[in-house]
Amino acid sequence: MLRLAIIGTNWITERFVQAALEVQEFELTAVYSRNQARANEFAAPFSNNAVCFTDLEQMARSDAFDAVYIASPNSLHYEQSVLMLENGKHVICEKPVASNIVQAEHMFKVAEENNVVLFEAFKTEYLPNFSLIHEHLPKLGKMHKVFINYCQYSSRYQRYLDGENPNTFNPAFSNGSIMDIGFYCVSSAVALFGEPKTVQASAHLLDSGVDAHGSVLLQYSDHDVVISHSKVSDSTIPSEIQGEAGSMIIEHISECDHIVLKLRGEEAVTYQVPQVENTMTYEAQVFADQIKQGKLCEKAKARALGVSRITTEVRKQVGVIFPADQV
């Protein structure tokens, strides 16, 4: 059984711990929070003897865990991951793995130097129904156009409008639409098609300096991927892949629970396979498999670095600058 620690005591951390326990590969043995009482409170439902830390350096040096799930603000992913990797801990870090490509490349270098696994927690790629996209893609014939859409009005946007400065819209925390909602779109594109030849981006920035919403054009040798992302508006439009023989429709691509195939001259057909309710279960299993095999997944590494290269370029083109970019 792998001994798991967590950094960050929010709802997504709770969901991941539940997923990790469900795959029966992990036990929770350590929790970090800046507040001792909060750490104790988080650990209680999952473990009677988890060690609770309020000091990250002390935690990294401890022998209380083998692997750690990091779900802190984006701006902290790099330093916290490197600290854990340098101390011989396997790391699954919430998306995005880093603020920019320079940080991401260094993180994987540190992981390899210390013979530990670094894995970006992008769950969509490992969903059983996402695999159906790969399986049925050849039926579309020669591919030409892809539209990936994810627009969701942030629950924190009103706080921003009210004059507060929530993390979600604060460049100090390496946030904004392309690093959050848009990440799923870019990652899905890279998971399906690899890195593009060129990237063109536009966005509308808030006064805080991050993007509220935007568009990205990824150009491949024989097809284009158009990405629409927003944290200040909702959309009910699905994503779509168009080929010469028909199209594939994917609703809510981040959770991908089915696909619809509409071939020319034929009725639309829905394809769906069973998928567990807590969709983080699949990434937890992939992380465990890498640790047991003693090596990180090169495909996952390539996807993470490819996405980081794209989002770094997108931000450069639209003028979103993080403190991490100026180090």
TrEMBL record:
Residues 3-121 form the Gfo/Idh/MocA-like oxidoreductase N-terminal domain. Coiled coil: none annotated. It comes from the Bacteria. GO terms for molecular function: nucleotide binding. Transmembrane segments: none annotated. This is Oxidoreductase. Residues 140-248 form the GFO/IDH/MocA-like oxidoreductase domain.
